Amino acid sequence: MKALCASWATLDRGSFPNIVDWAETREWMTRDEQALMDEEAALVTEFEGTQKRFNAARNAINERSQAARQRGDSGPRAILTTNDEALVDAVQSVFEDLGFEVENVDEGRQENEPKREDLQLRQPNDTTWIAIVEVKGHKKRGAASEDLTKIERHVRAFLKQEGREPSLKMYVRNTQFALPPDEREIPCSSHPEQVEHFCNEPDLPGVIVSTADLFLLHRDREVLGLEEARRRLITTRGVFRHRPSPA
Q1: 115 is in which domain, residue-wise?
Q2: Which residues of the chain carry a pLDDT beneath 70?
Q3: Together in a domain, 235 and 133
């Protein structure tokens, strides 16, 4: 309060008498004192300008951060927070960002036709390679062994329709998405025998992918290169795990 009154007194000594010693007023200062007062005022002005520029730059960064978060929430991070059709759409977008050609099989399915796999993946510049992908999400429970059985039915349907087996079967799981990603269980970790059977058939290999690992792979795609990112995913036999690149 004293400092505030002193500031007012320098502007209006009549209203605030005896607040500031007369020797501290500019009119009775020496040249050295006046020079130092001017130097301090210039420093304060410089600081205030720097503070304004800092605040403006920080506000701009915060605005861009909010926009980036919204893009992340509606984009790749949606594979960690959704299920059903929203999850399938989000997974499709992530695969497309990895350079796969992706077909949403259900979009072309007639009402009287049995349900097929959710997605089909194709490699660029390889007309013979094709993967069928089943996408599932559950808010609380983990992956169930019967989910792997459903994919086997899709394999038989693919064989009947296409006259050949697919090159790869893939099971993408967003399990326990009510939990933070690093607290969720590894998909099918309690069913090792079913995982072994699903993933290591000699003629039709399989891979089980958690959306947490898929998100991390997608984030590292530019560091790895799209071809290497796809290779790591489709050559895994078992549960795919991705070790993130250093930030």
Answers
A1: 76-240
A2: 1-20, 108-110, 141-145, 245, 247
A3: yes
